[in-house]
Write a structure and sequence with these properties.
single chain, alpha+beta, Ribosomal Protein S8, Chain: A, domain 1, about 45% strand, globular, Polyhydroxyalkanoic acid system protein
């Protein structure tokens, strides 16, 4: 799964943001469950929720068409992240870093 670069190298991690990703909703769910087995929700609902201590992260996915590169078609998703219980910024950064690292495939 390719992540559009919304890495927060400088500046604080916001309480909500949107990423565009190359994946199907089912593929996103599969990778997310491997990264966070105690995940609530499913791709059919388009919503997920995960908890890490006092942090609560809600994720919504919405199909965003197909990106075409020659004959290659890559499914796109809009993925909205929102910390329902935001916690401290360092905790948000740590959680997103763990998710991003666990969901990164093939050097993308």
């Amino acid at each position: 799964m390719a992540l559009e670069s919304t890495r927060f190298f400088s500046g604080p991690v916001p309480e909500s943001f949107v990423r565009r990703m190359t994946a199907t909703p089912a593929g996103f769910e599969r990778e997310l469950r491997m990264a966070w087995p105690a995940l609530e929700g499913c791709a059919a609902q388009g919503r997920f929720r995960l908890r890490d201590g006092e942090l609560v992260l809600e994720i919504e996915v919405e199909a965003a068409g197909v990106r075409r590169l020659g004959l290659l078609e890559l499914p796109q998703l809009h993925v909205r992240y929102r910390f329902a219980v935001p916690g401290a910024e360092p905790a948000r950064r740590a959680l997103l870093s763990r998710l991003d690292n666990a969901m990164r495939k093939g050097g993308g």
